[in-house]
Structure formats: C-alpha cells, structure tokens
Design brief:
Elements (H helix, E strand, L loop, with lengths): L1 H12 L3 H27 L15 E9 L4 E6 L4 E7 L13 H15 L6 E4 L5 E5 L5 E6 L5 E6 L5 E6 L5 E6 L4 E6 L5 E6 L4 E6 L5 E6 L7 H7 L10 E6 L5 E6 L4 E6 L5 E6 L4 E6 L4 E7 L20 E3 L5 E6 L4 E6 L4 E7 L4 E6 L5 E6 L4 E6 L4 E7 L4 E10 H7 L1
Antiparallel strand pairs: 1-2, 1-28, 2-3, 4-5, 5-6, 6-7, 8-9, 9-10, 10-11, 12-13, 13-14, 14-15, 16-17, 17-18, 18-19, 20-21, 21-22, 22-23, 24-25, 25-26, 26-27
C-alpha cells in the first residue's frame, strides 16, 4: 500500500505532456534567437573594408542616385551625362526576417512601410578612396557597406529605431553618423567594420546630419514628431532631455559630447553650411522657403519665400516637405534647391538670398547635389524616375536621364576608373 501511494505521488508530480512541449518550443525559440544574436554580432566587421584617404589612379566624377523603391543605386557619369551602371543594394532580401533582425522582422518593417511606403535606399556616402559605398537602407533599418567593384555586401549594422535615415561620413572616412529618426538617436559607426562606437541623444526625430570639413563637429538637425501638430509636438517634448523638438544639435567629433543646441521655429529639412561655417542655410517643414541662420547671433537673419506653382496644395508633397534638397556650391555663392511641390530647381544667391532662376525639372524633385567644380547641380526627380543635370552658370537643364524607381538621394564623389570598369 505504501509503495502504491508513493507511486501515485510521483505520477501526480510529473509535468503534463502539453507543458513539456510548450517548454521545449520556448527553449528552441530562445536558442535560435540567442544564436541569431551571436551570429549577427559576429557578422559586424567580418568583411571589414579598407579606409584610404584618396583614390588611386585616374578617376571619374560619379553621382550615386538612391532609388528608394527600386532597391538600387544608379551611377551617373556627370561629365559624360550618362548612366553607366547600377548596384543592387538588397542582395540579402527586401523583407527582413526575424532571424536577420527580430524587431524589424517581427513588425518594424511592416509598420514603417504602412505609413511611408517602400524605402530601401534612404542615403549614401562614398569612402574617400572611391571604392566603398555606404547605404542607409531606409525601412530595412540598417546601414550596409558595399564593395563597388564587385557589388559584394561587406557588412551591415542595425541602427537605432526601425528606420535608417540620413547619414554623413567623417572627412577622413573613419566614421559614419546615422540618424535613427524615430528613436531620437544618432548612431556613430566605425566605417571600416560597421561596429557601433556610440549612440547619441538628439532632438526629436533627427533627420539631416553633417560633419564639418575640419572633422571637429557633428551637426544633427531634427524634424519634431511629424505625427503631431506643432504645438502638441512642443508640449510632448517638455519632459525630455532636449526640451525643444526643432533644433540643431552640435557635438564635439573627438569626445562625442553635446556642446550646443540651436532652436528653429519648424522642423529642419536639408541644410548646408557656408564655407566659413558661420552661417547655416536650411529648408523648413511645410514652407516654400530657405532661411539663413547666424550661429553667432543665434537667430534666423534672412529668408526667401520661393515661387509656388498655380494650384499647388499640400496634396502635392509628402512628409511635410514641399521643398526637400539643398546644396551649396564650393565657393559658397549659390544654393541649388529642389522645389518638390512645384517641380523646379531654384538657384539662389547666398548673398541676400536672391532668387537667380527657377529651372523646370522632372516630377517631385527631392534632392540636389553639386559637382566638385560647382558647375553642375544634379537633382533627383522622385515621381518621374529620372535625374536632371542643371548648368548653374547657364541656369538651364542640360540633360535628363532615366534612373531607377523613386530616386531619393544623391552623393557625388570621385571613383577610380579601374573600379568603374568592373561596374560597367
């Protein structure tokens, strides 16, 4: 009888089969996730790239045009005025799986695409030697490094939040500064390995970012929460470390410490610095304008309201940006601005912000870049899937080239002809 009681007690204490199965499944999932994290971290730097300070041998000036929906980067020879090739920047797939990135694969990519559409190529930067192209891959939520000659993906690194936004490369090519827009963070990456070196607190929804030519400062501009009205966005930020949502945050590039903040009345879109870095030129959210900000006076000192085509309304632009794309010529004399809502590129003299010309281009121009000699402005026309080449002195479009689907961003740099031979 005692043995029977003991046996019954043992059976009663056994774990039910269903619970066993659930525990086993949970253990397998945990093991897979842990293994994935180890694998993911081990990939960072596994295919490290060299960082050289200048190209070797003969070079050509190339405009790298990011096709946000197409998932490619088109290469435009500026002097020849022709498209010479394209780089596939999603060789690892257009959908993020939970094994590649758990958060992004589970829901992140789908949620961000629901509000903003497809975006595989948000921004690019070129290594100083012209051999490596870095791509902020938008709604994939990462930055990837590609060997231009072979097209091989060398490394990729997930950034803060679920959207990789604009980025900048340090003048010596050693670091990348990447805006994690929805996370209010700026990631600092080692350009050679992709290793994250730091994560900096920014203003609300950081967007455009620049490193100064002397490599002393990093400037991060914020949009404010675009899901809220202006006053609500300001109120929502009152308890944050950075109380004003629309600001330019300045960091010391050596220590990565925040050293200053400058307030703006609206979200800051693309911006540029004067050659002596005393002035900042910027486009602002929901404005058909360019403003000049004086760092010493800490205020906007000049403004130009640009023409608006007849019949244009807020339905004609996306994401609070009727103007989105601003570049300054190397001599600091002229701005070339992409007038997305009215389908033109505006040429504006920095002295007194005088409008020199509006040049008709394709549908929804959304970024602009300039050749090294300041002669040609390249404009990406987002809805007509082409780029316009504008002769700044002649104030005229001299070429329009078909590109990939939904061109969004342009980086101009010099690439060795030996590399271009492989790309062609």
């Amino acid at each position: 009888m005692l043995n029977q009681v003991q046996h019954d007690d043992v059976r009663k204490s056994e774990v039910p089969p269903m619970i066993k199965r659930l525990l086993l499944v949970a253990l397998v999932i945990f093991a897979l996730f842990a293994g994935y994290r180890v694998w993911q971290e081990s990939r960072v730097g596994a295919e490290a790239v060299d960082v050289a300070v200048a190209p070797e041998g003969p070079t050509r000036e190339i405009a790298f045009v990011s096709n946000a929906v197409g998932g490619t980067i088109s290469l435009v020879d500026i002097e020849a005025r022709e498209v010479i090739g394209a780089l596939d920047i999603v060789p690892d797939g257009r959908r993020v799986s939970i094994f590649r990135d758990f958060t992004q694969g589970l829901a992140g990519q789908r949620l961000i695409e629901r509000g903003g559409g497809l975006n595989y190529a948000q921004d690019t930067d070129l290594s100083p030697d012209g051999r490596t192209l870095y791509v902020a891959r938008g709604h994939l939520g990462d930055v990837a490094a590609f060997d231009l000659a072979s097209g091989i993906l060398r490394w990729r690194t997930r950034v803060a939040g679920v959207r990789a936004d604009h980025m900048a490369i340090a003048p010596d090519g050693s670091r990348l500064y990447v805006s994690g827009t929805i996370s209010d963070r700026l990631d600092v990456l080692d350009a050679r390995t992709g290793e994250r070196l730091a994560r900096l607190r920014t203003g609300v929804w950081p967007h455009d970012v620049h490193a100064t030519p002397d490599n002393h400062r990093i400037l991060s501009a914020s949009l404010g929460d675009m899901q809220e009205e202006d006053e609500t966005a300001r109120g929502a930020a009152e308890d944050a470390d950075d109380p004003w949502p629309y600001q330019l945050t300045v960091y010391d590039a050596a220590t990565l410490e925040r050293i200053d903040r400058h307030r703006f009345p609206r979200g800051i879109r693309p911006f540029q610095l004067s050659p002596d870095e005393s002035l900042l030129y910027a486009q602002l959210s929901n404005e058909h304008s360019i403003v000049t900000y004086d760092f010493a006076r800490r205020e906007i000192v000049d403004r130009i309201d640009l023409p608006v085509a007849a019949g244009v309304s807020e339905e004609d632009w996306d994401f609070e940006a009727p103007h989105h794309g601003l570049v300054i010529t190397p001599d600091g004399a002229t701005l070339c601005a992409a007038g997305r809502a009215s389908d033109y590129a505006a040429l504006v003299a920095t002295e007194g912000l005088e409008l020199l010309a509006t040049v008709p281009v394709g549908n929804a121009p959304s970024w602009s870049a300039v050749s090294a000699d300041g002669a040609i402005c390249v404009v990406a026309n987002n809805r007509s899937d082409d780029v316009s080449l504008i002769d700044i002195a002649a104030r005229a479009e001299v070429a329009r080239l078909d590109i990939g689907r939904a061109p969004k961003h342009i980086t101009v740099g010099r690439v060795p002809e030996s590399v271009l031979g492989a790309v062609r």
